[in-house]
């Protein structure tokens, strides 16, 4: 075994500097897919274990919503494993997040990552859920650890204790305070359909490709009128500086046997994504649904939309099924994940 020449006093745990390069070989130890890493790397905050000569440990955390964080990557150079570097790094990260008012921290790992499962539980995380066949769906090459096929994702969560008072209170940013969520009115038909067409051009996570949305302003007006008159349907808009930046359509069943169920479509303009808008739309809708006696909320999401899946899961949605190769996006087959939430549970 190669000697690490480890000097505990020399190693410091620090936040990554603004323009400091990420140690990709180290990140790949925890996540073997460079493409997946590129998707989240720029969105994360990063911490390093630095011995003065090289980065020997790394941890990246992504704020999914206000106060809710996820550990996206955590790795220590193999020759430094078993020497307490990982524990020091994780404690430093959690302390910084606690100082900023984090309410919960989530981490996901594989069923075959036995040492990681033990490590995170020692850091105060508890197993909360299992997402079956996650790694089979998302990774092209099979992953084997400890002689065990890595198929399922284990979700662990560390919640802030109720007795803790954050050192810095959570304060809404000027942007968050300036965003209003309201019910769509007839006059919103034109701005809403234009926003949807713009969203079609910005992301592949919506069903329609650019140019395929044939609904015009008059048809959108009819949909809004129907929702306003319906007992179990509604359309919610997120508005900022007079502009519609997000929407959520909750359309209820039309016959007696499914009137208790609502199907959801949601979209937020990309320049406002990852700023809590989707969560606010859902929270407003869920209060309305409870008032209307709605029992079941359901939606579908592309399996590649990791941010969306994490949002829905954090709101209490569960995966019910997978429609294999349901869509073709940019020439590739993509699965659709069916998710639901029962409001009485």
Automatic annotation (TrEMBL):
Keywords: Acyltransferase, Transferase. Residues 1-144, 195-344 form the N-acetyltransferase domain. The keyword Protease does not apply. It is an enzyme of class 2 (transferase). Its EC number is 2.3.1.-. One of its GO terms (molecular function) is acyltransferase activity. PROSITE patterns: GNAT. InterPro entries: Acyl_CoA_acyltransferase, Bact_Acetyltransf, GNAT_dom. CDD domains: NAT_SF (cd04301). This is GNAT family N-acetyltransferase. It comes from Paenibacillus wenxiniae.
